[in-house]
Amino acid sequence: EVQLLESGGGLVQPGGSLRVSCAASGFTFSSYAMNWVRQAPGKGLEWVSTISGSEGRTSFSDSVKGRFTISRDNSKNTLYLQMNSLRSEDTAVYYCAKATLYCGGGLCYDGAFDMWGQGTMVTVSS
Amino acid sequence: DIQMTQSPSSLSASVGDRVTITCRASQGISNYLAWYQQKPGKVPKLLIYAASTLQSGVPSRFSGSGSGTDFTLTISSLQPEDVASYYCQKYYTAPLTFGGGTKVEIK
To answer: Helix or strand or coil: residue A72?
Structure first.
């Protein structure tokens, strides 16, 4: 069974740091790009960051660029999000999500998010 | 960056009604468009990818159409279990922006 399980959320003061993790199982983790998506209380979905499967190429939303780092340990089937200089507006449920991989005509690209974890709550408050 | 604009932000319809949600990209994105359903208190679920391809296990009353900048999610006959928020998302190139969401309720 494909499963994603986030952990590491909690309460942190403004300016503080936190690392959340996502343990994956049931699929070949290293073959797929992985993502972090967040949802502030009562708000919509916001894409945060992506890391490619094997090359480790990363991208970030403008709202977290320079403060957050995404990484993965393919030997442990685990995805990480290191969050520094946290602000109140970073308060949200953080979901990890697996991207699909589409291949055709000799080209492959990362697609929509077909599997999501249950999320971990991060609260930034004094 | 490409912006994704959904409309309406909310709607109320009767069971059995045909419901249409639109998503507009500020620039052309070919068919690199997905739709997600998020029921209250639940995790988002992929409904449609490549603008019109139904994800495995999704009921056939859901359909998607469009290409370029204008996209549509249609529920052909609204059911009580379809009460949820629906989000479009562009993919393929970052940023992988979501639309603002559409909340669907039963009248």
So the answer is: strand
Arithmetic mean of pLDDT, A12-24: 98
Size of interface A-B (CB pairs under 8 A): 62
CA A116 to chain B, closest CA, distance in angstroms equals: 7
| pLDDT confidence tier of residue A105, bands split at 50, 70 and 90 | confident
- The CA angle A99-B72-A62, to the nearest 5 degrees, is 45
* Beta-strand relationship, B10-13 and B45-49: unpaired
Mutate to test the interface with B, among A22, A39, A45 (most CBs of B within 10 A): A45
Q: How far apart are CA B96 and CA B76, in angstroms?
A: 28
Closest CA to B51 of B37, B69, B38: B69
How far is C-alpha B13 from the chain's CA centre? Answer: 16
Is A47 part of the contact surface with chain B (CB cutoff 8 Å)? yes
Query: Token digits for B79?
Result: 């059911």
Residue B48, pLDDT > 90, answer yes
